[in-house]
Amino acid sequence: MPDATAPAVLLRDVRLDRGGRSVLSGIDLSVPRGSVTAVLGPSGSGKSTLLSALTGELVPAAGTVEVFGQRVPTRTRDLLELRKSIGVLLQGNGLLTDLTAGENIALPLRLHTRFPKPVIARLVAMKLQAVGLRAAADLYPRELSGGMARRVALARALALDPPLMIYDEPLTGLDPIASGVIMSLIARLNASLGLTSIIVTHHVHETLPIADHAVVIANGRIVFAGTPGALEASTDPLVQQFLRGAPDGPIAFDRSDLVARTEAA
To answer: What's the whole-model pTM score?
Structure first.
């Protein structure tokens, strides 16, 4: 039985490899239930690799990953069952272009439930209402603005009422107004639906205002974990370089530079 007192996500001494190379190592992370946790870091720091471990796409080379008290399984059937409890908003939306907004949202309901068509139609309308797009059900992705498409993708991710939502760079390609709408929506849905949300992003200043916890990844490890206030007050050179967007500092933006530093250590 799942442990109702366990954190939503728990990683213990996790190492994640890709292509025979260690991307992240020594990762310890606890995400409280009901929280909004921002996982921050520069491009190429391993944020999306961490996401892959949470969804079971990438098996850790070492350590353990748990979701709601259960270790992420490797058996396909068990993994598919776990993924029903995890909603993922993809960076590129992932909407099927030959389906309307309503049909895109209905897709996971048709694949994973036996609800009759009228019930699915009602649920689709509810999800669209939740993201403020009730009138967009019959529009195709090409007819939607970037912000509207992101909200439709969010409604689809919420279709099966997952208790855990993961947002992979949710503000990519959005203007400041659309970005504000999306972040406000994430915060409101997290509170009203009792979700746990993990936002994987490099958009610091847009994300911190709605976050309860912040994690910064750089140079293959977690360099900060704490409250947004503590993050902004941190004097750690790695954290300061990232927050200021400084080109020079301990964070290596050139992968070959990082490899050279590692070999020299």
So the answer is: 0.88
